[in-house]
Design goal:
heterodimer, A: mainly alpha, B: 21% strand
């Protein structure tokens, strides 16, 4: 028993929280990369704007592609609907309108995170403070997810939370791989870039907290091919695309009438299964990731069709 | 001691301190606790309370606030304390009052015995815009129309309680009453350990069981929902809070539909699910566009049809607002005598009805001493406070009364009781009222205490949170329990 309207809000609540967490992760890992790589490598803060496909809005709001304006845009810009703060506000609004079915702590927790960010908005312009703040944000998001895991019955509400979170997560993982590929695709400084390839891929792994798990389960050298394979196809790592899709399928058992969704996910899993050895940084890999992202959109739309558009079945 | 020594509340009943800083018996423990503190320490407690409220996200909505739909709930840390012995009497009086009011509403829509007996003139009801002809002939279960009532009480200079008004339509504030308690437990846990303060957290259970007792469906667990106008309503916070605490669905009008079988259903991910009881927080005019306001998008087309067919219970029942009228209010003591054959346990504030010639003459002559109120407004709109008004305003109201006497009542200005309140640099007396909540279904229930609202501006009598008022926790303290141990 769950209202369609509420199901939709819960689904998006999970997506927004995951987006908040991923934005914080992205900023952290990018900062780390900036410190690790030598200056001559073409690597700028503005790359983050490209990665989030927000170039147009950025140009409207800012004159310079500086660290300051990039951080403002990405983290706290109220006019950017995809900024971390905006995502958090949307998440909070969705908790506010579904409080009747969520554990009370959810509301407290999201308020705390909101207060934290509001009171420390200025910190995003100081590197050391920013990194500390991002780590706190990630912790808050994780504790919300943990709270859901530990206090919610694994019913429909839970199912929509898990589906929302995993779709958003899969999307983000594919974008991070694209980020890695982007650097290697730069022909100009190929030699210098290649010298730092391992540093780059290690950072990509860290951005999804996958460094240790990669080490434990893959064990080989950290290289582009291994990381791409791990983050796309590993069956056990919670942020790999394959695992995220498993989670979606698992939740379908809890929900009524999920056939359409099932079909879309199956097709996407098939695409994942047809893995061939892409060269990291190649156009083929980029196109492949692009086709995955199209697939996520199709899954998302099928979820809408199945549950969020209110049915008018006569009594 | 500096804090309380110089405290006075001239001409008023102060609920905590008497002149010179001495405490009333029920407030002694509180005053002993606070006395060693300086103003800084009290301010720190207030900050802790404010931070707790922000973290808990306790908020309310003010319509005029553009873009800022939730504002932090205003709260003062000095609680209002009432002796349990005194409260027991009030409690009985409130249950008695709601019972009589429900007898009256039922009578109005059915037998109309009270008119025939000449106790209440029938034009009082038939001229009321809250009278709904669509409800004539209805007989809700347990004779309960107004299932949830928020009655506003005040104390006069002698300390006696009076009923100021009954809110029978969609009374709000109960969630804040409960949240205030949660905040105080964070701020002064020691006092809760050492004093026997009656708990009030049971309200959502009582509400759910009252609502369930109204269900037309006798078999199985009734499906109870809370119907809200949506997130922009000023009481949305409360709607979500109560739904959560009861484990009931919070629905908007568009989530519900009435089938051809006259049952009410909600749209959910599996299709449609039947609803047995609706705790509506939408005014009558908007609940069913087929019957009332045609362009309402908040309500559910066909809801009145479902209710009249006995397929769903609605709390509060449509039409119950007929008793939520300041002219009807004046007759409540007579209703108690008529229906229950009892004497009212809590008094009305003396009220002059402008529709009665003799009383109108008194009002017109003494308007500068009186408070004049329109019969049907809420939230303090359209009032005249005689002693604070100009000669021109007096004249204007005389004119209004002469034109439409039915719409006006007048009452003497009371000096409302005060409670010490933390202000910028000291504790100062501020006026308070009290809204307890009374439930009536198969059984009746009165909250231990209620929502205390406080006028934060010196000398002001306006306690509405939309107009800068604040709130306090309300403690019903049982002094005798502690001696038993």
């Amino acid at each position: 028993m769950m209202l369609s309207r509420v199901a939709e809000r819960v689904f998006w609540l999970a997506r927004y929280i995951e987006r908040v967490e991923n934005t914080a992760r992205m900023v952290l890992v990018h900062s780390n990369l900036m410190y690790d790589l030598p200056k001559k490598i073409d690597m700028s803060w503005y790359r983050l704007i490209e990665l989030t496909s927000s170039e147009t809005l950025f140009a409207q709001l800012y004159d310079n592609k500086t660290e300051k304006s990039v951080m403002q845009m990405l983290l706290v810009e109220p006019n950017n609907p995809a900024s971390l703060l905006s995502s958090l506000r949307f998440a909070r609004e969705n908790v506010r309108t579904t409080r009747d079915i969520l554990p009370k702590e959810t509301w407290n927790q999201i308020n705390q995170l909101h207060l934290l960010l509001r009171s420390r908005e200025a910190d995003v312009q100081t590197r050391s403070k920013r990194n500390a703040l991002m780590e706190e944000v990630i912790q808050h998001c994780q504790s919300m997810v943990g709270m859901f895991a530990g206090t919610l019955s694994q019913d429909e509400t839970f199912a929509f939370l898990v589906m929302g979170r995993n779709l958003e997560r899969a999307d983000m993982t594919s974008r991070m791989l694209d980020e890695g590929g982007f650097f290697l695709g730069q022909q100009k400084h190929l030699e210098q870039v290649q010298a730092y390839e391992n540093v780059l891929w290690a950072n990509i792994l860290r951005s999804v907290s996958g460094y240790l798990m990669y080490r434990q389960h893959v064990q080989t050298q950290i290289d582009g091919e291994g990381v791409v394979k791990f983050l796309l196809n590993d069956r056990l790592f919670p942020r790999s695309v394959t695992h995220c899709l498993f989670k979606v399928v698992e939740m379908l058992k809890v929900l009524p009438d999920g056939e359409v969704v099932r079909q879309e996910v199956d097709e996407l899993t098939q695409i994942l299964g047809q893995w061939s050895q892409f060269e990291a940084g190649s156009k083929e890999l980029h196109d492949y990731l692009d086709s995955l992202q199209q697939g996520f959109i199709r899954v998302n739309n099928s979820i809408y069709q199945a549950w969020f558009i209110p049915k008018h079945r006569a009594a | 001691m500096m804090l309380v020594q110089d405290y006075t509340s001239p001409g008023c009943f102060d609920e905590s301190l008497v002149e010179g800083g001495g405490a009333r018996a029920c407030s002694k423990a509180l005053v002993d606790y606070v006395s060693p503190m300086d103003i800084k320490q009290l301010q720190d407690l207030q900050k802790l309370a404010d931070a707790t409220i922000a973290r808990m996200g306790v908020s309310f909505t003010v319509y005029s606030d553009e873009g800022n739909i939730d504002r932090a709930w205003p709260f003062d840390i000095w609680p209002r304390v009432i002796d349990a012995n005194e409260w027991r009497q009030v409690e009985k009086g409130l249950a008695q009052r709601l019972k009589a009011l429900n007898c009256f509403i039922d009578d109005v829509y059915n037998e109309r015995a009270i008119f025939k007996a000449g106790v209440v003139p029938d034009e009082v009801v038939f001229s009321s815009r809250n009278f709904r002809p669509e409800c004539v002939g209805m007989k809700p279960k347990h004779q309960a129309w107004a299932n949830i009532c928020g009655t506003d009480l005040v104390r006069d200079a002698s300390g006696a309680f009076f009923v100021l008004e009954d809110n029978l339509r969609v009374p709000s504030g109960v969630s804040y009453m409960l949240e205030n308690r949660g905040v105080m437990k964070q701020v002064v846990p020691e006092l809760f350990e050492n004093l026997h303060i009656q708990p009030m957290g049971d309200y959502p259970n009582r509400l759910l069981s009252m609502l369930s007792s109204m269900s037309p469906n006798e078999s199985g667990v009734p499906e109870v929902v809370v119907l809200t106008p949506g997130i922009y309503n000023s009481a949305y916070y409360e709607h979500a809070f109560l739904a959560h605490e009861m484990g009931a669905e919070l629905v908007e009008g568009s989530d519900l539909l009435v089938g051809d079988d006259d049952y009410v259903y909600m749209r959910n991910i599996e299709g449609l699910k039947r609803v047995d009881v609706i705790y509506r927080r939408i005014d009558d005019e908007f609940i069913d566009p087929e019957v009332f306001c045609k362009d309402s998008t908040l309500g559910v087309p066909g809801l009145m049809r479902a209710w009249r067919a006995g397929k769903v219970a609605i709390a509060n029942a449509p039409g119950c607002g007929v008793a939520d009228d300041k002219v009807v209010y004046a007759y409540v003591p007579d209703m108690i005598r008529f229906y229950l054959n009892e004497e009212p346990l809590v008094k009305n504030v003396p009220t002059y009805l402008c529709s009665r010639e003799d009383q109108r003459a008194y009002v017109l002559e003494n308007i500068e001493k009186l408070v004049v109120k329109p019969a049907n407004e809420s939230g303090g709109y359209g009032m005249l406070v005689g002693p604070h008004a100009s000669v021109q305003e007096h004249q204007a109201f005389r004119q209004l009364i002469a034109e439409n006497p039915r719409n006006y009542i007048a009452q003497p200005t009371l000096s409302l009781s005060t409670v010490p309140t933390l202000c910028a640099e000291a504790i100062e007396p501020r006026h308070v009222d009290l809204r307890p909540f009374i439930l009536q279904g198969a059984n009746s229930y009165v909250t231990p205490g209620g929502l205390t609202r406080v006028a934060m501006v010196k000398g002001s009598l306006v306690v509405n949170s939309s107009q800068g008022g604040g709130s306090k926790d309300t403690w019903i303290v049982d002094l005798e329990v502690d001696d038993v141990i």
